[in-house]
Amino acid sequence: MDRLQLVRESLTRKVEEPKGPSCKTSDYFGDLVFDRKKMAQYLEPGTLQALYSCMEGGTSLDSKTADGVALGMKKWAMEHGVTHVTHWFQPLTEGTAEKHDSLIDYDGKGGVIETFDGKMLAQQEPDASSFPSGGIRATFEARGYTAWDPTSPVFILDDTLCIPTVFISYTGDALDYKTPLKRALKAVSDAAVPVCKLFDSKVTKVYSYLGWEQEYFLVDEALYSARTDLMLTGRTLFGHNSSKDQQLDDHYFAAIPTRVAAFMRDLEFAAYHLGIPLKTRHNEVAPGQFEMAPIFGETNLANDQNQLIMNLMNRIAPRHGFVVLLHEKPFDGVNGSGKHNNWSLGTDTGTLLMAPGKDAKGNLQFITFFVNTLAAVQKHNGLLKASIASATNAHRLGANEAPPAIVSAFLGQTMTQVLRKLLEVPSDTPIEIAGKKGKKLGLVEIPEIFLDNTDRNRTSPFAFTGNRFEFRAVGSSANCAGAMTTLNAAVAEQLLQFKEDVDQELAAGKPLNVAVMDTLKPIIRSVLDVICFEGNGYSEEWKKEAARRGLNVETNVPKMICEFTRPESLQMFTRTGVYSERELTARNEVKWEIYVKKVQIEARVMYRMAVNHIIPAAVEYKTALLKEVALSQQVYGNQDNCVTELQLLSLLDKHINSVRLQAQAMKEACDKAEAIGNTYEQALAFHEVAESFPALRRPIDKLEELVDNKLWPLPKYRELLFIN
Ligand code: ADP
Ligand code: MG
Questions:
Q1: Which of 202, 218, 449, 613 could covalently link to 322 via disulfide, CB atoms 3.0 to 4.6 Å apart?
Q2: How buried is 228 (Cβ within 10 angstroms: 0-12 exposed, 13-18 middle, 19+ buried)?
Q3: pLDDT at 38
Q4: Which pLDDT value is given to residue 140?
Q5: How far is the CA of 214 from the centre of ligand 2 (A)?
Q6: Angle 198-201-202 from CA coordinates, rounded to 5°
Q7: Is the Cβ atom of 269 under 6 angstroms away from ligand 1?
Q8: DSSP characters over 411-426
């Protein structure tokens, strides 16, 4: 069986990967991707050059080049048995969208031939009127266009050539995640290059890097199918905790269960063919929870790969009898899932800007980018939180194992000390920073230990980890682009401001290092006072302290979303060219709408499960007990032997009544919310509905503890959470 065949099989049913020395990962890594190697092999030299220049952002794709590229691509694809082609895009719903077209066309001689040209590659017009647009596209002009993003390579999935594209409206407004992300990446490069040039004139481009850590749960397919809530909402809406879950921390980093390891291997096998450089796999904290992470890469590509891997996971899991849960909080009482976004910037000359440099100048450059990043996070802390806010992530934020619903930054002891020391140095003193060897060169010193400094504070949503910042608040089901667009745009804005300020200092005749430090000092003072926090982010005191510092402490998701259209945000996004006001307004509508629908679905599922599953089971048990009591009475002539049964009956009655009342109240609140016309107002009303869920859940979980196990209609946490 050839390799392509194997990959196809691996996506649908069990295959044994050929083993042996002839089968190194590096031999087949990326062979289903039309990467630079394949471009060089399949494209004419002129076409190749034109495409490279387009990929590097120098030129846009002309029709002649597009035709040339399509020709080579078609040859490569057909050699791999491709029959269909699709534009692959990321609308504002979850996941990716694709509409496959066969390659066939009439040949004019009564038969068909395979065709694929530049037009099909470069642009399509999917009838995509059902995708959310927040009112940007009225139904009468429902056109949406997809256009090829040459910076993300084309790949083959099954029999289909997938072309990563942006998705925009007739009026040019972004209707997807990719378009604003690409704008933000350009903005951060454009803003960072002039700053880099202060230190190194050779820099012409700055890249944003992303390394995502994808957390997920696996559950048994059969048990999953017996839980309507998991199937329809992705999480359990009820469930008493298991006597043992994560108390012993015995799942974290433990040996990977055999069945799970087999799933991971199949997933990696498919991922490697598609050029996704998966590096790490391990058990996470909660039972049934796992994580994987690739080697970090350029943000746009890394994000496409994350979208693709989520798709692959869903396809491959059933082969092992699993369903993947990407929801942020599938089970109450145990850890939820996030997607830490490890983020940094680097130059086209190979310098990582979020890591200390080799010499004083390099360190100054590092401090410049480090401090400006903190300033951007400080200024837009509420917006960054809004960028990861969703109905599903709301269950995780502010809960006890996840980042609090306050964005602060953790620097670690070393960097905090470095910043403090910098403030003590007189401004007119040239500053030298000690090299890694620990040799003292001047007043401020970065200890030798620095690069290996693995200070960790798991309670911080934005933590420095040696050569990058880790934005931990991103949800496991999210498209990373939401967070990455906002972060890169905010940093871009800050760098533009910094460059203006530093230029003034330079114009006043100051030497570079003094000009830079003079500009940085007030920023350092401010970030140390406001955004930097080294303590326990879960504590109550921090909530008070954060509010005192003026950080955003909002916990209501629909309200958080308003951050996008605050004047500071509008100004930042328009200055960097990332979103227009119209796009922001439209996106808020979409976010509220999705929020409303998610909560509405959960409320409906909850109501029906309570009324159709839970109450009947509890009543059946109650009836059995009543019969037992009546029988006792008949036999013994009194109820004296039935004291515990009678107590149990009164408890059952209490909880059953409570379920009925709460379910009814929730339904009424839902009906009221559904009647509201304004999307924002409606989202606020549904937020209240969501807040009432625990009141319904509590008596149901109590009933689970009381009712005969045989009668309980749902698989329990103790069954769902443990894989064997
Ligand atoms: P952790 O110890 O935080 O769990 P992992 O090894 O699970 O770390 O994941 C760390 C992620 O960060 C990986 O994807 C890794 O490639 C990525 N990463 C490492 N250095 C950088 C960097 N400079 N910029 C962006 N991402 C990075
Ligand atoms: Mg990790």
A1: 218
A2: middle
A3: 96
A4: 54
A5: 8
A6: 140
A7: no
A8: -HHHHHHHHHHHHHS-
Contact 4, 32 (CB under 8 A): yes
Q: Counting ligands in written order, which one lies closest to the CA of residue 280? A: 1
Ligand 2 geometric centre to CA of 318 (Å): 25
Q: Looking at ligand 1, which residue's alpha carbon is closest to its atom 17?
A: 211
Q: Which of 594, 586, 543 is nearest to 564 (CA)?
A: 586
User: Coil, helix or strand for 86?
Assistant: strand
Structure tokens at 688: 């209240």
Average pLDDT over every residue of 368-374: 97
Residue 453 in tokens: 């400094």
Residue 254's pLDDT band, with cuts at 50, 70 and 90, is confident
Q: Which two tokens stand for residue 596?
A: 């409303």
Output the six-digit token pair for 140: 């009468």
Predicted confidence (pLDDT) at residue 447 exceeds the cutoff of 70: no
CA atoms of 723 and 716, how far apart (whole Å) = 13
SS3 138: coil
Q: 538, 525 in Cβ contact below 8 A? A: no
CA of 408 to the centre of ligand 2 (A): 20
Nearest CA to ligand 1 atom 11: 211
Q: What is the pLDDT of residue 13?
A: 61
Atom of ligand 1 nearest to the CA of 295: 16
Residues 6+ apart with CB under 8 A from 259: 320, 321, 322, 723, 724
User: What one-character-per-residue DSSP string does 325-367 give?
Assistant: E--S-SSTTS---BEEEEEEEEETTS-BTTS--SSHHHHHHHH
Residue 395 CA to residue 685 CA, distance in Å, equals: 17
Tell me the residues surrounding ligand 2 (ion) with CB < 5 Å: 213
If we measure between CA atoms, which residue out of 357, 354, 555 comes closest to residue 471?
354
Four-point Cα dihedral 311, 313, 314, 315, nearest 10: 90
Note the pLDDT of residue 1. 55
CA separation for the pair 99, 81 (Å, rounded): 18
- Residue 50 amino acid letter: A
Residue with more model confidence, 642 or 471? 471
**Residue that is written with structure tokens 């309570």 in the block:** 610
pLDDT, tens digit (0-9, with 9 covering 90-100), for 668-711: 999 999 999 999 999 999 999 999 999 999 999 999 999 999 99
Number of C-beta neighbours around residue 129 at 10 A:
14
Give Cα 713 distance to the centre of its chain. Answer: 34
The answer to whether 482 and 392 have CB atoms below 8 angstroms apart is: no
pLDDT given at position 536: 87
Question: Which residue type does 135 have?
Answer: G
Query: Which pair of tokens denotes residue 328?
Result: 């942020």
Tokens for 199? 């230190």
> Helix or strand or coil: residue 98?
strand
Of 250, 226, 256, which Cα lies nearest the Cα of 239?
226
Contact 373, 469 (CB under 8 A): yes
pLDDT for the residue numbered 439 = 39
